Amino acid sequence: MAIVSFMPLIFLCFLVNLVTHAAAERQYQNCVTERGNFTANATYMANLDALLDNLTANTQIDYGFYNLSYGQNPEKVSVIGLCRGDLNPDVCRSCLNNSRVFLPQFCPNYKEAIAFYENCMLRYSNRSIFGVVEDTPWYYYWWPGNNVTNVDQYNQVLFKLLPELQSKAASGDNRLKYAAGSATVTDSLRIYALVQCTPDLSEQLCIDCLGVAFSEISSCCNSVAGVTIGRPSCNVRYGTNPFYEAIPDTPKGNSKLRTVIAIVASVVAFIIVIVLVFIYLRVKMARKYIEVWRKWNEGTALDIVDSTLSGASTNEIMRCIHIGLLCVQKDVANRPTMASVMLMLNSNSATLPKPSEPAFVLQGRTFTGTQLLERNSGLVETAINNVQASVNEASNTELYPR
Ligand SMILES: *[C@@H]1O[C@H](CO)[C@@H](O)[C@H](O)[C@H]1NC(C)=O
Ligand SMILES: *[C@@H]1O[C@H](CO)[C@@H](O)[C@H](O)[C@H]1NC(C)=O
Ligand SMILES: *[C@@H]1O[C@H](CO)[C@@H](O)[C@H](O)[C@H]1NC(C)=O
Ligand SMILES: *[C@@H]1O[C@H](CO)[C@@H](O)[C@H](O)[C@H]1NC(C)=O
Ligand SMILES: *[C@@H]1O[C@H](CO)[C@@H](O)[C@H](O)[C@H]1NC(C)=O
Ligand SMILES: *[C@@H]1O[C@H](CO)[C@@H](O)[C@H](O)[C@H]1NC(C)=O
Ligand SMILES: *[C@@H]1O[C@H](CO)[C@@H](O)[C@H](O)[C@H]1NC(C)=O
Predict the structure, then answer these.
(1) Which of 31, 160, 234, 357 could crosslink 110 through cysteines, CB 3.0-4.6 Å?
(2) Contacts from 35-41 at CB under 8 Å and sequence distance 24+?
(3) pLDDT tens for residues 172-225?
C-alpha cells in the first residue's frame, strides 16, 4: 500500500528532475542546514546580494574563478564561483548568472548554499571558505543506459588516465587548476576525462581532493561509462564521447602571426609576379628586336613583315625597320633624336648608320639583347624558385612566438 502511493511521487520527482536538468543543466544543489538561517532583510542578505551582483557584473576575470568576500564579521559573506576550465568567459558568466538568480531563491534565508551546474559551480557561506578543501556536500551523476561491457578493461584505462590528469591539474596556477585528456580502451572505445580543482587550493590539497573523488567513483558508479563527481573543492567528469573543448597548447597569438605572415607572403608573391611579367615582356621585346636585327643583317628583314603589308614599298618598310633598330642602340649617343627620326622618315635620301645589336636597360645597367636573354632566363628561374620556396615556408612552418 505504502509503496503504491509513493510511485506517482517518485515518477513526478523523476520528471521534474529531468525537466529542470534539461532546461538549466543544473545537476545538484544543497541548502546547508547546519550553517543556520538569517532573517529576511538582515545585513547578511544585503551583503550576499551585493556580493553576487558584484560577481556577475565582473568582466575583468576571464579565467573562470571568482573568490570574493563582502561585509563585516559576523555578517561577512564569502563566495566561490568556478567554471569548467575549457569554457570561454561569456559561457562562464552566463552560467554563474543563472546560478546567482537560482540559488538564493532555492535556499531562502540560508547562510550557506551550493549549486552545481554542468558548466559551473557557485557556493557561498558565512565561513571563510578560501584555500581549504570542503568535503560536503558532494554529489554524483551518471548517464543511465550506458554501462560498460568489459568493466575491468575500462577501469584499467580510466584509473591510469585520471591520476595523470590529477597531477597535471594540481600543478596549475592560482587561476586555473584543470586538465582534460583521453585514452583508448579499444579501437572503437575511448575515454574522455576532465578534472578540476578550485585554484585557491594548494597543489597538495588539489591532489587530495581529487583522490577522494576518484575513490567515490568505485563506490557509486562502477561499470558506468559516463560519470560526474562534484565536490565543493574539485570535480571529475568522464565519458565515452568528447565533451570538453580542447584547449590548444600553442599560444593564441600564433594564428594572428600566421595571418600576418600569409598576407606578407601574398604581397611579396604579387610583387614578384608583376616583376616577372615586366621581365617577360622585356625579354619578349628583346627577342623580337634581336630577331629583326639578325634578319636585317642577313638581308631577310622582309620575312618578319606582316603579309598584309606586302603591298607597301619594300624600300619604305626596310627604312622603318632600320630606323626602329637605330632607336634601340646600346649606346644612347647612337640613338637618333625625335627630330632626326622625323627627318629620316620624311626623306628617302638621308643615309642611315648601320645599327649594332639592340640593347636594354635593366636595374640601371645596360645589356645587349643576347646578354639580357641569358641573364633573364636564369633570373626568372631563380625568382620562380624563390616564390615557391617562400610560399611553401609560409604554409608549412609552425610558428612559435617568443
Ligand atoms: C555562521 O552562522 C552560523 C549560524 O548563524 C553561526 O553558528 C556560525 O558561528 C557562523 N560562522 C561564522 C564564522 O561566523
Ligand atoms: C531555515 O529556513 C528554512 C526555510 O526558510 C527552514 O525550513 C529551516 O527549518 C530553517 N532552519 C533553521 C535552523 O531555522
Ligand atoms: C523587507 O524589506 C522590504 C522592502 O525592502 C519590505 O517590503 C518588507 O516588509 C521587509 N520585511 C521585513 C520582515 O522587514
Ligand atoms: C566589486 O567590489 C569591489 C570591492 O569589493 C569593488 O572594488 C569593485 O568595483 C566592485 N565591482 C563591481 C563591478 O561592482
Ligand atoms: C543576468 O541575468 C539577469 C536576469 O536573469 C539578466 O537581466 C542579466 O542581463 C544577466 N546578466 C548577464 C551579465 O548575463
Ligand atoms: C582569490 O584568488 C586569486 C587567484 O587565485 C588570489 O590571488 C587571491 O588571493 C584570492 N583572494 C582571496 C580573498 O582569497
Ligand atoms: C549500470 O551500472 C549501475 C551502477 O553500477 C547499476 O546500478 C545498474 O544496474 C547498471 N545497469 C545495467 C543495465 O546493468
Answers:
(1) 31
(2) 35/110, 35/111, 35/112, 35/125, 35/126, 35/127, 36/110, 36/111, 36/126, 37/109, 37/110, 37/111, 38/109, 38/110, 38/111, 39/109, 40/109
(3) 999 999 999 999 999 999 999 999 999 999 999 999 999 999 999 989 898 899
Q: How far is the C-alpha of 325 from the C-alpha of 290, rounded, in Å?
A: 9
Which mutation among 37, 38, 39, 41 tests ligand 3's pocket best, with the greatest number of atoms within 8 A of CB? Answer: 41
H or E stretch covering 314: helix 314-326
Q: Count the neighbouring beta carbons within 10 Å of the beta carbon of residue 197.
A: 30
149 touches ligand 7 (CB under 6 Å)? no
C-alpha cell at 222: 562502477
Q: pLDDT higher for 61 or 375?
A: 61
CATH superfamily placement of domain 149-239? Gnk2 domain, C-X8-C-X2-C motif (3.30.430.20)
Contact 54 CB / ligand 4 (< 6 Å): yes
Residue 86 DSSP label:
T
* Domain chopping of the chain, boundaries: 19-125, 149-239, 254-396
pLDDT 10s digits, 86-111: 999 999 999 999 999 999 999 888 99
pTM score, whole prediction: 0.62
CATH number of this structure's domain 19-125: 3.30.430.20
Give the pocket of ligand 6 (CB within 6 Å): 67, 69, 130, 174-175, 199-200
